[in-house]
Write a sequence for this structure.
């Protein structure tokens, strides 16, 4: 998809993001595709339906991205964010993932689910959106009149030294075969995808559930489609084909003026869906009076999911206004939103951004984040459950230890509360 000028090329990327996100938002609302719900169903009821839908989305994305990359149709090496960066952010992936998993459980859903709920009339999720957006924005952008960010003030000095330099890139293909990376990525991606598909489809109950199949397929294909679109939009610059980010780097030489120049070049890189940093981008865009220089793929993705969910809620007549039921409900959502804002930026993504988009690049950090999010959410559910059942008898420490035993992360002899 080659264009004669930057503005047309950028417009194609932005509208591509919006249309794909619109479809995804409608389907996610229709099918109740929910990553927190998937963990809850599995942990509390042993139901793997929505978990398999999530894994189906991962399988579709990981197979699709690595096949298309082998064919030269996707470029995930220069992605935004840099999933394959050679610096493995171990502590940020794990600590951020745990924070995010805890937060999404307290706030009743991840960043994507927050948007789906807003589209369905849930005003509680507007509060969650605002809190995540403010924190995510200032984790990356400096405070007014300062060069300090939340990241630099609260985290950078102690957490970044725990990172590990693994080489040029951290994806499994590069680590396994640095001399034949594309083939290694193809083989590893196909093996991981095939293993996930076998697990997902061996359940006859899952195969009979059209919504779970539709949700997993559409989310996976949406992630793949976004990678394809953002990797293949180019500009004809005097006979040279340049990607949007490449054109931006040479703006002074190629453009006649600064008219239409985006505020930053990194958001023009190949990318796919993630929903924490984009909430911050969206808040910054709205606060600026909707300056066109701040309009990014992420902002359009947020708008697309919101509108898609809203349209489906109207079509299905499921639109319902919902507000907080109690002070504790407010507190849980506020704390959960704050944890998602901090954790999502630290971990460089969410249950979509890392567990699907990131894993599709075979990045080790994305896999660490996925595991940490899952653990944080599952353990929070266990603690909530035991404290509800045993009330005053269940201290936080007893519920935590018992939850770890239930998740088989501690030996059974350490159990503090009887299983229920």
């Amino acid at each position: 998809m080659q264009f004669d000028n930057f503005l047309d090329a950028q417009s194609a990327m932005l509208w591509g993001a919006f249309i794909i996100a619109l479809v995804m938002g409608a389907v996610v609302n229709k099918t109740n595709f929910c990553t927190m719900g998937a963990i809850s169903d599995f942990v509390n009821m042993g139901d793997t339906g929505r978990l398999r839908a999530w894994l189906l989305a991962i399988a579709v994305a990981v197979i699709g991205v690595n096949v298309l990359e082998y064919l030269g149709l996707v470029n995930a090496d220069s992605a935004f964010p840099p999933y394959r960066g050679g610096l493995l952010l171990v502590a940020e992936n794990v600590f951020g993932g745990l924070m995010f998993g805890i937060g999404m459980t307290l706030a009743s859903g991840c960043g994507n689910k927050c948007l789906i709920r807003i589209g369905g009339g849930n005003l509680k999720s507007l509060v969650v959106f605002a809190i995540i957006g403010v924190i995510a924005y200032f984790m990356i952008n400096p405070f007014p009149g300062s060069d300090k960010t939340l990241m630099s003030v609260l985290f950078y000095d102690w957490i970044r030294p725990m990172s590990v330099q693994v080489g040029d890139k951290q994806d499994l293909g590069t680590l396994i075969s640095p001399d034949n990376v594309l083939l290694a990525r193809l083989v590893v991606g196909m093996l991981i995808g095939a293993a996930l598909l076998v697990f997902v489809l061996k359940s006859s109950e899952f195969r009979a559930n059209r919504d779970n199949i539709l949700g997993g397929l559409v989310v996976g294909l949406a992630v793949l489609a976004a990678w394809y679109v953002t990797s293949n939009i180019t500009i004809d610059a005097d006979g040279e084909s340049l990607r949007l980010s490449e054109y931006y780097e040479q703006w002074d030489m190629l453009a006649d003026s600064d008219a239409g120049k985006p505020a930053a070049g990194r958001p023009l890189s190949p990318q796919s869906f993630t929903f924490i940093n984009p909430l911050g981008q969206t808040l910054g865009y709205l606060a600026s009076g909707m300056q066109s220089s701040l309009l990014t793929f992420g902002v359009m993705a947020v708008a697309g999911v919101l509108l898609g969910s809203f349209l489906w809620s109207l079509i299905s007549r499921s639109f319902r206004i919902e507000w907080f039921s109690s002070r504790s409900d407010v507190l849980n959502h506020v704390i959960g939103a704050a944890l998602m804002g901090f954790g999502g930026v630290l971990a460089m993504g969410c249950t979509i951004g890392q567990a699907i988009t990131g894993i599709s690049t075979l990045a080790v950090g994305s896999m660490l984040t996925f595991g940490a999010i899952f653990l944080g959410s599952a353990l929070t559910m266990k603690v909530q459950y035991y404290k509800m059942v045993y009330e005053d008898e269940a201290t936080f420490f007893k519920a935590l230890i018992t939850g770890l035993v239930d998740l088989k992360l501690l030996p059974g002899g350490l159990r503090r509360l009887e299983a229920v």
